[in-house]
Amino acid sequence: MTLQSIRYECGELSILDQLLLPHETAYERIGCVEDGWKAIRSMKVRGAPAIAIVGCLSLAVELHKREFPDTPSLSSFIKAQLTHLTTARPTAVNMGKSAAILIKFVDSMVEQNVSHEEIKVIKKIERMLPDDISDNMKLSEHGAKHIMGRIGQDKVTILTHCNTGSLATAGYGTALGVVRFSGEAVLINLNKVSKINITSSPPQEEVYCTETRPYNQGSRLTAYELMHDHVPSTLIADSMVGLVMRTRGISAVVVGADRVTRNGDTANKIGTYQIAVLAQHHGIPFYVAAPITCHDGGRLDGESIVIEERPPHELTCVAGVQLAPKGESGSFGCVVYTPSDMNCWNPAFDVTPNELITGGIITEHGVFTPHQLNDFHDKHDV
Ligand code: MRU
């Protein structure tokens, strides 16, 4: 049984509530755009591709139920809802990009005088689910082949960060998809179909996944997925990455992306940047696995990416337990303090500069160096 974060059929949408994992598996119904917005904002559903798919499907659910008197009312409703959905979480490009594509589609229908009953926006949204899975599978194959070709040995040990698997996508995953595809059975097959020469004992795979503080997507979600799929894996705290790289023979780092800019700078889960610095120090190839839906071809570099800041309690509390000191009121001489908790800064993402992405950027079209991205973005109208 594969993990499914998004269930959708004929206008009915539900999501696996990721706040309850790994202890409880409960699906929550999404009945309208506002439900979708809240599920994204509260991180019941998270991961750049899943955010966009759930956001757009929440609109499809609402369109299934509503009737519109004419084309202008349908068009302005769709635009307003999509614009609203893009405000739920700002850093991942996927929702904004999907909104722009859908708005362009509706505008072109309006220009061609297509009647509102004939504007098949629901169908277009529904395609996002199978398209994401097939892109992820292509990307994963490209990534696994590239890594195996590069290291040229039969044991691959990958380090990954955050959660980029079935839970973060429509299925299969991006960086975790590469991990999946690098698994034993597939590698034996790869050995036959590609020119990679793995002749000795069957290839083995091992994965190190970071805990991914402060929100613990690694320990709560990636560890859950890896155990679910019986992938040999080891959980480490974020602070152990340097030691693991030095002592555990890491072949490659593979992470996902929330936004890849034209020059290859990549926004991803907080902590990615420091892992990339460590990878460079240890001479370990660092890969970003990012389907085109995660690329922001209109942005030159990572400087201007808006980094989402999450509330302090997500840093100070774990599973409802307060770890940092709570503020107390008091006085010092004549100065009276009002109660305030420990001051926190809680950015959810960081930007890894292109020069640290030494392995490449893995897409469904192949693996690119950051410097090849400009041409690639032009060619594919990213
Ligand atoms: O805050 P999150 O959990 O939504 O962050 C997720 C990540 O940073 C992932 O690495 C990224 O979205 C890619 S998911 C395929």
From TrEMBL:
Keywords per UniProt: Amino-acid biosynthesis, Cytoplasm, Isomerase, Methionine biosynthesis, Nucleus
Pfam families: IF-2B (PF01008)
The protein's name: Methylthioribose-1-phosphate isomerase
Location within or outside the cell: Cytoplasm; Nucleus
Family stated for the protein in its record: Belongs to the eIF-2B alpha/beta/delta subunits family. MtnA subfamily.
Annotated site, Transition state stabilizer, chain positions: 162
Any GO CC annotation of this UniProt entry: cytoplasm
Its biological purpose: Catalyzes the interconversion of methylthioribose-1-phosphate (MTR-1-P) into methylthioribulose-1-phosphate (MTRu-1-P).
EC number: 5.3.1.23
Gene Ontology annotations of biological process type: L-methionine salvage from methylthioadenosine
Residues annotated as catalytic: 258
Cited PANTHER family: METHYLTHIORIBOSE-1-PHOSPHATE ISOMERASE
Keyword Cytoplasm attributed: yes
Reaction(s) catalysed (UniProt annotation): 5-(methylsulfanyl)-alpha-D-ribose 1-phosphate = 5-(methylsulfanyl)-D-ribulose 1-phosphate
Any one GO molecular-function label of the UniProt entry: S-methyl-5-thioribose-1-phosphate isomerase activity
Domain of life according to the entry: Eukaryota
Pathway: Amino-acid biosynthesis; L-methionine biosynthesis via salvage pathway; L-methionine from S-methyl-5-thio-alpha-D-ribose 1-phosphate: step 1/6
